[in-house]
Amino acid sequence: MNVNNNPKCELVxxxxxxxxELQGLLYEPKIKTNKIVIHNHAWIGNFYENLFIDYIxxxxxxxxxxxxxxxxxGAGILGEFIKKEKTKRTRIQSGGSVxxxxxxxxxxxxxxxxxxxxxxxxxxxxxxxxGCQKIAYYQFKTNDKNVHGLIxxxxxxxxxxxxxxxxxKYYEMLNIAKKLQNNGKGDDxxxxxxxxxxxxxxxxxxxxxxxxxxxxxILNYSGNLNGIKKIKCPAITIFGSHDKYENNxxxxxxxxxxxxxxxxxxxxxxxxxxxxxxxxxxxxxxSWLVKKTNF
Length: 295
Description:
By secondary structure, this protein is α/β, with parallel strands linked by helices. The chain folds into two domains: 3-157 and 225-291, Alpha/Beta hydrolase fold, catalytic domain (Rossmann fold, 3-Layer(aba) Sandwich); 159-218, no CATH class. Helices cover 35% and strands 22% of the residues. The protein has an eight-stranded mixed sheet with strand order 1-2-4-3-7-8-9-10, sandwiched between helices. Strands 5-6 form a two-stranded antiparallel sheet. 44% of the residues are buried.
């Protein structure tokens, strides 16, 4: 990819209703438009890391869409976030190890509000990995009329993955974590002998492994899918054939197409981050957008 041909972009600073500042990039096409694709990054990810961002930004702006990618409060493992109230600026700690899943409603709403203030009121939400759960949950809860489409990149069933990871210790770990939370230790770090990632709180741990949490329910493919079945806008789901976090991506895509009537695409030889297959990914997205002429 020739970076010299990339669309121009600008740094944006988005303020949430609870006064966090979320930074990102806004790419705009040459001709003014009201259409935008808003990207939501993965767990402990960020707005710039994945190479596919460059490809998607270039592809969708060539179609006449703007493209915005920005951090949410789950960016990184743990870091300082700016909190701005009137003229006072302070810093708080947040990140993927401590985030509360339901706060995605605040972060996505802020991104949409910012976009609308810039003149973009025809919106497609895009998520990668945990970003998929977040955009699905947002649209399920809000039925936002400005959201005309959803793009799911590697929407892994986290419950199934964690069950596979923990094996016969899964229910033991789940019950211990519930007891810790019930004993008022939800904000404590999970004990090392229970952890499957370097650092996370008990509350965050339960978000990931408990099928009864909002996070656990929304893309639990062995569950009833009642939440996402209520989503009315068109959607496309894309997996790489070598996604190590999804047991059988091809089977999952077939299941989602049958259950939800979503468009699906398996990208051969692509991993969870679509490394080396970014061009195929971006062209799959643009092809789907072109066919959705009502956007």
